[in-house]
Write the structure tokens for this entry.
Amino acid sequence: MSFPVRVCALVGRFADPRVAESAGALVPHLAARGVRTLVADDAPLEPSRQVERVPERVFGQRADLVIAIGGDGTLLYAARLVARDGVPLLGINRGRLGFLTDVMPQDMLASVDAAIEGRCEQDRRALVTACLRAASGKVEAESVALNDVVLQKLATGRMLDFETWMDERYVNTHAGDGIVIATATGSTAYALSCGGPIVEPRVGVLVVAPICPHTLSDRPIVVPATTRIEVRITERPDTRAQVVCDGAVLGELVAGDRLEVKAARESVTLLHPAGHDYFNLLRSKLHWGRGGHDHSR
Amino acid sequence: MSFPVRVCALVGRFADPRVAESAGALVPHLAARGVRTLVADDAPLEPSRQVERVPERVFGQRADLVIAIGGDGTLLYAARLVARDGVPLLGINRGRLGFLTDVMPQDMLASVDAAIEGRCEQDRRALVTACLRAASGKVEAESVALNDVVLQKLATGRMLDFETWMDERYVNTHAGDGIVIATATGSTAYALSCGGPIVEPRVGVLVVAPICPHTLSDRPIVVPATTRIEVRITERPDTRAQVVCDGAVLGELVAGDRLEVKAARESVTLLHPAGHDYFNLLRSKLHWGRGGHDHSR
Amino acid sequence: MSFPVRVCALVGRFADPRVAESAGALVPHLAARGVRTLVADDAPLEPSRQVERVPERVFGQRADLVIAIGGDGTLLYAARLVARDGVPLLGINRGRLGFLTDVMPQDMLASVDAAIEGRCEQDRRALVTACLRAASGKVEAESVALNDVVLQKLATGRMLDFETWMDERYVNTHAGDGIVIATATGSTAYALSCGGPIVEPRVGVLVVAPICPHTLSDRPIVVPATTRIEVRITERPDTRAQVVCDGAVLGELVAGDRLEVKAARESVTLLHPAGHDYFNLLRSKLHWGRGGHDHSR
Amino acid sequence: MSFPVRVCALVGRFADPRVAESAGALVPHLAARGVRTLVADDAPLEPSRQVERVPERVFGQRADLVIAIGGDGTLLYAARLVARDGVPLLGINRGRLGFLTDVMPQDMLASVDAAIEGRCEQDRRALVTACLRAASGKVEAESVALNDVVLQKLATGRMLDFETWMDERYVNTHAGDGIVIATATGSTAYALSCGGPIVEPRVGVLVVAPICPHTLSDRPIVVPATTRIEVRITERPDTRAQVVCDGAVLGELVAGDRLEVKAARESVTLLHPAGHDYFNLLRSKLHWGRGGHDHSR
């Protein structure tokens, strides 16, 4: 991360009035501090001399900082844009606290100042790479993910059958709705809804959590982040499955195809205002410790 | 149910050699007892003078008994064929015990004899009716189900948002992969994978179980079988959901559409050999009580 | 229930200043309406001519209405005092909404007026009877319960082994921390923490939920409320278990002893202010439907 | 580990005839290979010149190898005896495969030969230290554990209230039956029954899993194995809790007392025959992948 920050890219769904409002407040604030602002060339924002429109794909090379305004989905999108280039990200929530967008609107300007002056806590998060490989061995699609890679059944009333392999060793044969392979960061997203544990972000592991498994003892497994995970679709007629990375569809698999997931070379750096506390975030997001329990149960 | 049985319909995936083999043994056995056998006119079975080929839709009017050979999916299919006419069903499993197909292959002939002579236990099971209603109020599709009616997200990386209403009262707003509305019979099918309870089949209730809910306290609810349940898809762009009854796709819903589920007027009668024990079936299917536990945990 | 109410018993932990304060406001209010107030003879309340002190055990015969002030535990205690006599109960919460004490402090006087004038909704709840039977067949202890009967391991690092039987039929052999047998009313108490479903209060069932079972497929079962449930402690050296009814210890069991649970002849009548909505209570207690979900998961 | 092995200690419940039988076969086998055998001085084994009786506490200094015969509980007991001295352990199961005692009786002699000749796979497992500290700061009891440290409510119908702190940071306030702090090794023991994940043994983490928590979002957390965890009993009258390490009672806590858990300096080395496969063990213990699934669900 280079300081001071001279160029900042804004990412968000600007069609949402709350996001547009935050962007509207942010652009002159950045300009007044001598920071240039980039937005996507097709962003639905009013023209302004303080904003330069460029293709999103150059954010990685041009920006010193990315500010994602919206929910966690927006930050996940932004993270994939700049993962290769190591540009740090600051997440501004548009109203409700997110696991990744942990700056509240009222704290936006102060947090942005802290980010451009290098006063934020830097929080490095591991990424994974997902790769779809056809039965022929050909790579069909590839993507990185910060939260999770999800294999799910596609448009059918039936269960999906698949095998999991780790570092070339056979693990299990599953039947169910699919499987989530989550980073520590993604443990509080989809994997949590599948019965997976909360994983402190700095722990170097992956959570492999079956989705609605047919076998009740088919429980989430925590493995080292260096594990190479392979999911093989079992040969059955009419089998179709979909792979989704951080909420974006990567592609489809049919019987015989494979999904491969492993640690990515890249990582992303999240910026947090000083005093950031992960457990405080958990307590807030999960409604923990709400007042006196009634001890009759 | 009329005794003695004079006409029997066979239902199964006869392309499966094990199913064809069972059918091959069953047909002459029925003929020798003076029972006529019906099969679907497109069934991939060898021609035989002992078998009459008719459209499946007339099984309900013509047969005194339906024998389903295969897994539970085959019996669910057969049950919907004859639900309106009240024809009883006997389920022959092709190898592994099912919750519904509880006659093992080696007991097939003896159990069929018991069924045609009226010596089986009659086990009446409730059905539900699912109805897809467009925002305009128009009924788009309708079906009965013996196990469950499932609303699920369709081909997208995002969660589905929907509301549940019961007997016109608002219950909850959900975000997740969908929801299962199961009969007592279906409680051990998909709903169990969603964290629902096992419900003894004679209990007159429905289980309403969210699928991978975003909110961890969004737990399965057990309500009277007479409850009229409505699921309303929340208005959001690009929302698509699918409704599946007993594993068969009923149709799709978009934002504003509704799924209505209520007790059906019809019921189905399952036949079991004497000595049938539901808890024994549970123990077998769920691998309960396997040998000495190691008390260190 | 006899109207108009002439005698009302107050139950609560009056040593708690908030409970004493509510009682202090309630007594003159009742007196002004011509209703006599009974409290337990050992209640730590200031002497008052408006209050008659009697043994709690006569509340059932003397009172037309019981008002429980506190949490759900207080109402459970009061319910067992008067279950035999069918005196209705009104539950005033001392601050946080309870599943059973659903009148908020600020609504206390209006709700009490509604109760004494017969304008409340009457909500009949089933009770169960728990009976501890020694290996010799002797009944060691007996109690009714409105929420649940819990068998739990006692002061040991080891699991408890036990069998469940229903209506004289063997169900399963369990290893774990114990088992909860809950009414529909109690489904949202301890049983919910054990993975049991929420059961609408008017459903006539029991939930039988193992506590931290060793076998992951050992799931909660929902059975008709008329089921006679028996739990038999397996013969093992040093086995000790405890039975708790609605939070109160009933007694201990050793290897060979049995716990029997069945529907009680008695029931209790809870009074609710008009407009009471069970699903609203659930939404409030379980933090359901809190604002916009972030759809990235 | 020193090779070749010259002194071997046997640990087991020799009052169990199956354990005594295995020991009876093992002692002459070891003697024939020139290995001396130690047993506890109070072991109920027949006198033999091939066996030296010593206090168990000297096993650590005198033995080159410990052979635990029985279930996982026996190996846990043996591991604590020799943890300080780093003596490796071989676990012989007396009939059913264990997570830790993974040598089947029929393979005992071959596996023991492999162990004494240094041909076994060495599998190093982390331990934790549990410390009970009174409100005064005084250490009341201390122990290491290989599987887990459990804080549980003691003999009462009420929930336990406690706070968790990690590395001096406040995490959560819990109400429930207690909490399990498990190593990766112990993740498949009690923690699994509490909804915790399976953790591959080589992952350096702890699983902190609440037992039947009152709050449904109070989920298991995975933290680095280096985390210092503190559990503080909340001030409430009559609160009593018990701490159990690997199934053995360590002591009691009252309101204001603390349980501290952190990585131990010691570790234990488990020996496995060549070809040992953790996932194979999981598949066997958890009944995974049993034959064809019925795809109707």
